[in-house]
Amino acid sequence: MKQNKINGFELGFGLEKGEVLAFKTDTVWGFGADPDDIAAIKKIYEIKKRDEKKPLILMSHDFKYLEKYIEYIPNYAYGLIEKYLPGGLTLIFQKSKLVNSYITPYSTVGVRVPNSIDFFEISKNIQTHTLATTSCNISTEPPVRNYQEAMEKFKDVATIIKPIDEGGGGDNINNLPSTVILCENENYKVLRQGAIEL
């Protein structure tokens, strides 16, 4: 597969059909694909050996690009978005009709805006401004910790994006998953405590 495709992130580009990216975020390394590319989404599940009943989440560098995938946003959720995003918080909402069943077979979808310059530059420069994502690992293993490990394990199946800082080492992530909250009703529910304490 191609490596360092973005190469400084100067120019916008379109992902190729079936292409999976691997990249650094503010929490753990992740895999990502065009939300409308079924072949690429299926490939993520194949790479990870992941149960297809476990959903992916949608990530963007700006929440405005995620809103179209959400059916309803409770008023209190805007306060959480303002306070914690970008950051290690995943919010789960009722999904809109734009979210296909390969991303999630359920009626809800998780969304996140990472506090990561690497992900910001990727998201800003791809045509969709949004990726369907999950952690960069085989499902029975922990997420990869840096660029070198991502290259060793996944260079043949994904486009590995070299981090901007640390010469590509990319070790300055907290290795904590995001905190996950359900925003389905008039009060949110914490499903997983992670990088942000709620």
Question: What tags apply to this protein structure?
Answer:
198 residues, single chain, alpha/beta, 4 helices, DHBP synthase, disordered N terminus, 19% helix
Describe the structure.
With about 200 residues, the chain is of the alpha/beta class. The chain has one domain (about 20-190): DHBP synthase. The protein is about 20% helix and about 20% strand. The chain contains 4 helices and 10 strands, in the order ββαββαββαβαβββ. It has helices spanning about 40-50, 75-85, 115-125, 145-155; strands at about 20-25, 30-35, 55-60, 70, 90-95, 110, 130-135, 160, 180, 190. Strands 1, 2, 3, 4, 5, 6, 7, 8, 9 and 10 form a 10-stranded mixed sheet that branches. The model is unreliable at about 1-5, about 5-10 and about 165-170 (pLDDT under 50).
What topology emerges from the helices and strands here?
Layout: E1 21-23, E2 30-33, H1 38-48, E3 57-60, E4 70-72, H2 75-84, E5 89-95, E6 108-112, H3 117-125, E7 130-135, H4 147-154, E8 159-160, E9 179-182, E10 189-192
Parallel strand pairs: 1-8, 3-6, 5-9
Antiparallel strand pairs: 1-2, 2-7, 3-7, 4-5, 5-6, 9-10
Number of domains: 1
Provide the CATH architecture: Alpha-Beta Complex
Order of helices and strands: EEHEEHEEHEHEEE
Beta-strand residue percentage: 15-25%
**Distance linking N and C termini:** 40 Å
CATH superfamily: DHBP synthase
Percent in helix: 10-25%
